[in-house]
């Protein structure tokens, strides 16, 4: 099984990296692709360029077995839709189960994504949540869960796509927003993200303005 963690990664931080590693280990995934959104359709323009966001990610995971920095959305013109990314990966890996990894916050807004009902045709969804989080949800997402949810991780290996697993993990309270604000305020965000990624922020003077 291959995991996919999409995000803005503006910048990548230890919250993202722990999620990727925890899910890979718990669900015995061969690898997890971390895929920066070049032009995220659901939010304002990222502060750092797509190339620098990708570089920060690459240096962050360089020596971590099983985590891959994947630049496919940078190579595609137009809005970066996850459904297109999953369709591409499905075509490349016709025999492998795929699993899109999402935070609970992202899952709650899933019905606003482009062609959201198609995502589950190409991949499973693994929704990660923290122990104290209340589980959602709007009626559309609730119905979606009723239809596709499984409580058995091994079901994900038995089919290529089509299941939703809610996976509790000990998440870290780190966000890219907090890192950008700290840099803009002249504070040191060290230990919230890898040193190599922080070095690129310093070198390119990223996030100086809030
Ligand atoms: P921002 O603060 O700019 O909104 P972010 O830190 O939430 O950014 P994204 O790149 O938007 O990061 O997140 C990509 C994915 O990682 C989303 O599915 C999100 O839910 C998840 N995620 C982000 N931070 C954490 C965290 N600390 N723990 C668990 N999941 C996270």
TrEMBL record:
This is Probable nicotinate-nucleotide adenylyltransferase. NCBIfam families: cyt_tran_rel, nicotinate (nicotinamide) nucleotide adenylyltransferase, PRK00071.1-1, PRK00071.1-3. It catalyses: nicotinate beta-D-ribonucleotide + ATP + H(+) = deamido-NAD(+) + diphosphate. One of its GO terms (molecular function) is nicotinate-nucleotide adenylyltransferase activity. Residues 4-181 form the Cytidyltransferase-like domain. It comes from Candidatus Venteria ishoeyi. One of its GO terms (biological process) is NAD+ biosynthetic process. Pfam families: CTP_transf_like. Its EC number is 2.7.7.18. Catalyzes the reversible adenylation of nicotinate mononucleotide (NaMN) to nicotinic acid adenine dinucleotide (NaAD). Keywords: ATP-binding, NAD, Nucleotide-binding, Nucleotidyltransferase, Pyridine nucleotide biosynthesis, Transferase. InterPro entries: Cyt_trans-like (IPR004821), NadD/NMNAT (IPR005248), Rossmann-like_a/b/a_fold (IPR014729). Belongs to the NadD family. Pathway: Cofactor biosynthesis; NAD(+) biosynthesis; deamido-NAD(+) from nicotinate D-ribonucleotide: step 1/1.
């Amino acid at each position: 099984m291959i995991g996919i963690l999409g995000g803005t990664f503006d910048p990548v931080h230890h919250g993202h990296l722990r999620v990727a590693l925890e899910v890979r280990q718990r669900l015995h995934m061969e690898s997890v692709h971390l895929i920066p959104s070049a032009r995220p359709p659901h939010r304002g323009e990222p502060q750092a360029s797509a190339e620098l966001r990708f570089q920060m990610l690459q240096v962050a995971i360089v020596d971590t077995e099983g985590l891959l920095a994947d630049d496919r959305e940078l190579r595609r013109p137009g809005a970066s839709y996850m459904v297109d990314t999953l369709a591409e990966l499905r075509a490349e890996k016709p025999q492998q189960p795929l699993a899109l990894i999402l935070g609970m916050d992202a899952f709650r807004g899933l019905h606003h994504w482009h062609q959201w009902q198609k995502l589950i045709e190409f991949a499973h969804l693994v929704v990660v949540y923290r122990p104290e989080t209340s589980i959602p949800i709007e009626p559309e997402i609730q119905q979606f869960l009723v239809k596709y949810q499984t409580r058995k991780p091994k079901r994900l290996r038995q089919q290529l796509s089509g299941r939703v697993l809610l996976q509790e993990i000990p998440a870290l309270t780190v966000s890219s927003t907090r890192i950008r604000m700290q840099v803009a305020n002249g504070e040191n965000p060290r230990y919230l993200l890898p040193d190599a990624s922080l070095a690129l922020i310093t070198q390119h003077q990223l996030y100086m303005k809030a």
